[in-house]
Design goal:
40% of the residues lie in helices and 14% in strands. It is of the alpha/beta class. A 7-stranded mixed β-sheet has the order 2-8-7-6-5-3-4, with helices on both faces.
Length: 394
C-alpha cells in the first residue's frame, strides 16, 4: 500500500459537507430562489453568440474590477475578484496568516473561517458572539489586544444566525484594533442599513450602495477589507464570483496570493451584466425582506425562538413546552438516540424532508443546538414550508 503524509493541518480537518439530498423545495444553502431579472438575462444572451470561449479571461479580472471601482468611487487597485467571496476569505488567510500566527474568527458563524485559518497553518482564535448572536465590540477589541491576532474576521450580517451589527459598532472595532480586519458582508444587501460614515460625500443616488456597510468607511480607515458576493442577493451561486474592496496597501498583499486567471471569463461577464443592472434586483430584495419578516413572525407565533435576522434566511429552534413535545414526538417516531433540543430540531428536519423540503440542519451544533436554518424562498414556497411546519406540530 502507498504510504503518504499530508500537512498536519490538513490531516486534522473534516471535509466540508452540506446535505445534497434531492428535494422539491431547496432552502438549505441561502441561494436566491427568485428568477433572474429579464434585463440581466437579455444582457447575458446578447453576449453569448460572440463570446470568445477560446480565450483566457482578463488576467486579474480587470473588466469587473473596473466597473465595481467606478461605481463605488475607488481606485481599481483597491478591488479584487475571487471565485465567490469564499476564495477571497481563504486567500486572505494565506496572505496574513502563517505558522505561529492567530486568526480571530467569530463563533458561532461560517464554519469555513476556522478551516481557512488552519489551511494557512494558523491557529483559529474563536471569539464568542453574544447569546443573541451579536458581535460584542468591547470584547473583540480586548481579545485582539490580549491575543494579538494577525487577522480579524467579522461576519456581518452573521451566518448562520442572521444578526446585523450596527455600523457604529463595526467602526469601533476597526478604529481600535492593530491587525487587518475582514468584514464579510455576503448578506449585506438584505440588511437595509441606513447609517453612513460622517465623511462620506457620495451623491444621494449612490449612498444606497454603502448604507449600513463598512464600505462607507473606506475613506476613513486603511486597515480593513470588505468582501461581498454575487451568490446571494444577485442569485449567481452557480457562477462563483465575489469581490473584495479595501485600501491599496492591503489589497496589494491579497492580490499576490490570487492565481492569474482566477475567475473564468463567462462568470466575469455575467457578474458584470448583473452589477450594471443592480437596480433590477431592488424590488426582489425588498420582497425577500418582507417575506423573511413575515416568516419569522409566524415561527414566533408558533412558539419558536427566532434569531434576529437581516439576511435572506431565518435561524430558529423550539423552546419551552414546544421543545418537550417535539422531542417526545421524535422519540416515538424515530428513536431515543437524541434528547432535548437536538431531538426537537431533528424531528422537524425529518418531517420537512419527508415533505421534500430540504433545510439546513444545525441541530447537533454545540451552540446552536436544536436549530434549523431556512432560506427565504418564493412566497409560494414559504407558504408550503409554513404549512408543513404546522402539520408537523399538529
Amino acid at each position: 500500500m502507498l504510504e503518504y503524509t499530508v500537512r498536519q493541518s490538513i490531516a486534522d480537518m473534516e471535509e466540508y459537507d452540506v446535505e445534497t439530498i434531492d428535494a422539491s423545495i431547496v432552502v438549505n444553502a441561502n441561494e436566491n430562489n427568485y428568477p433572474t431579472p429579464d434585463v440581466v438575462r437579455e444582457a447575458v444572451s446578447a453576449v453569448v453568440p460572440s463570446f470568445p470561449f477560446n480565450r483566457y479571461p482578463p488576467m486579474k479580472s480587470e473588466n469587473l474590477r473596473e466597473v465595481i471601482a467606478e461605481e463605488l468611487g475607488v481606485d481599481m487597485r483597491c478591488v479584487h475578484i475571487g471565485n465567490g467571496s469564499s476564495e477571497l476569505l481563504e486567500k486572505v488567510c494565506y496572505a496574513f496568516g502563517g505558522a505561529g500566527k492567530k486568526i480571530a474568527v467569530p463563533w458561532p458563524s461560517f464554519s469555513m473561517y476556522g478551516e481557512y485559518a488552519s489551511l494557512a497553518d494558523s491557529e483559529p482564535l474563536r471569539y464568542n458572539l453574544t447569546k443573541e448572536g451579536y458581535v460584542d465590540p468591547d470584547a473583540v477589541i480586548e481579545l485582539c489586544k490580549k491575543e494579538q491576532p494577525a487577522l480579524l474576521i467579522i461576519c456581518n450580517p452573521n451566518n448562520p444566525t442572521g444578526n446585523y451589527n450596527e455600523l457604529a459598532d463595526m467602526e469601533k472595532i476597526i478604529a481600535n484594533v492593530d491587525c487587518p480586519v475582514v468584514m464579510d458582508e455576503a448578506y449585506m444587501e438584505f440588511a437595509d442599513g441606513k447609517a453612513v460614515a460622517t465623511n462620506d460625500m457620495r451623491p444621494l443616488n449612490k449612498l444606497w450602495l454603502v448604507a449600513g456597510s463598512t464600505l462607507s468607511l473606506l475613506n476613513k480607515y486603511n486597515n480593513f477589507m470588505v468582501f461581498r458576493t454575487f451568490s446571494k442577493a444577485y442569485g449567481l451561486a452557480g457562477m462563483r464570483c465575489g469581490y473584495g474592496i479595501g485600501s491599496h496597501r492591503l489589497m496589494k498583499e491579497l492580490s499576490k496570493v490570487l492565481l492569474p486567471y482566477t475567475v473564468n471569463a463567462f462568470s466575469l461577464i455575467v457578474a458584470e451584466c448583473v452589477y450594471r443592472n443592480k437596480l433590477a434586483y431592488k424590488d426582489q430584495i425588498k420582497l425577500i425582506r418582507s417575506e423573511r419578516d413575515a416568516f419569522a413572525a409566524e415561527l414566533k407565533e408558533l412558539g419558536f425562538y427566532v434569531y434576529d435576522t437581516a439576511t435572506n434566511f431565518v435561524c430558529f429552534r423550539a423552546q419551552g413546552e414546544l421543545e418537550s413535545k417535539m422531542a417526545m414526538r421524535y422519540a416515538e417516531k424515530y428513536g431515543k438516540d437524541k434528547q432535548g433540543l437536538e431531538a426537537a430540531g431533528k424531528y422537524l428536519f425529518k418531517e420537512l424532508l419527508a415533505q421534500s423540503i430540504l433545510t439546513r440542519d444545525f441541530t447537533g451544533h454545540p451552540v446552536l443546538k436544536g436549530c434549523l436554518r431556512i432560506t427565504v424562498g418564493t412566497p409560494e414556497e414559504n407558504q408550503i414550508i409554513l404549512t408543513a411546519i404546522k402539520n408537523a406540530l399538529a
